[in-house]
Amino acid sequence: MEPFEGIISALEDDSIKHDLRRFPRQLKLLLGFLEGDYRTDPKTFFRGLKRAKIQISFVSELIRRYKEGIHFQPERVPFSSLADSVRKTSSLFLLPSARLFFESNLSERNAGREMGVDAFAIRRAVFNLVGNALRATAQAGSVRVTLSLGRNRLKITVSDTGRGMPRKEVEEFYSRGYITAGGRKEFGLANVKEIAKLHKGSVGIKSAEGKGTTVSIEIPVK
């Protein structure tokens, strides 16, 4: 994976670097997963291949947007399509850690309802939030992604049963490049705030040490 790290280091956008650095480890885990299940469990093997395809597609779109200077590209998309995209993004991670759940209020009544959003930007926000939640949550814990469409708003919530954050870290949550309690430099949460802002939305966070964290994104829709 060293050549991939060299390519990432050459990029000028720290937020892009942050997102791409999650993938070398994921690919390494996935390759080991596929190698172990090729003969013993064909069904699991092909599910792994499907996950790899989603990962490659996500990385390709991230790099394409970086090269073309695209920061925000909203379009009309049906709720069913957005829900499927968020669900797939939630499943990008292959980690020996917490259980991951996805739920939405998708129904026959609202499936075809269209909204003007940048679906990939929303996927990127979910990607960052889920990645952080999994990293903070022990194997016995859980991470839950919830997508809810109301009359005039879209709400995305990522909650975990992890270690939670100290008050000082919560206050610095939105800072670009802030240093976490573990000494790690963090960009992903500032990316989430920026994505919400581009949609004229907002981000809220509730966290307590030892009790987990819940982050919610609310976006107005028409």
Verbal overview:
With 222 residues, this protein is α+β, with helices and mostly antiparallel strands. It contains eight helices and nine strands. Helix 5 (79-90) packs parallel to helix 6 (119-136) and helix 6 runs antiparallel to helix 8 (188-198). The chain is globular and about 40 Å long.
Quick description:
With 222 residues, the protein is of the alpha+beta class. The chain has 8 helices and 9 strands.
- What are the segments in which pLDDT stays under 50 over at least 5 consecutive residues? none
Helix content: 40-55%
Instruction: Work out the helix count.
Output: 8
Question: Which structural class should the secondary elements be placed in?
Answer: alpha+beta
CATH class of the largest domain reads Alpha Beta
Kindly report the average pLDDT value. Answer: 79
Biggest sheet, in brief? 5 strands, mixed
Inertia-based shape: globular
Q: Please provide the ordered H/E string of secondary-structure elements.
A: HHHHEHEEHEEHEEHEE
Key traits:
alpha+beta, Heat Shock Protein 90, 2 domains, two-stranded antiparallel sheet, 222 residues, 5-stranded mixed beta sheet, 8 helices
Write the layout of secondary structure elements.
Blueprint: H1 2-9, H2 14-20, H3 22-37, H4 42-68, E1 75-78, H5 79-90, E2 99-104, E3 114-117, H6 119-136, E4 142-149, E5 153-160, H7 167-171, E6 178-179, E7 185-186, H8 188-198, E8 202-208, E9 212-220
Parallel strand pairs: 2-4
Antiparallel strand pairs: 1-3, 4-5, 5-9, 6-7, 8-9
Helix pairs in contact: 3-4, 5-6, 6-8
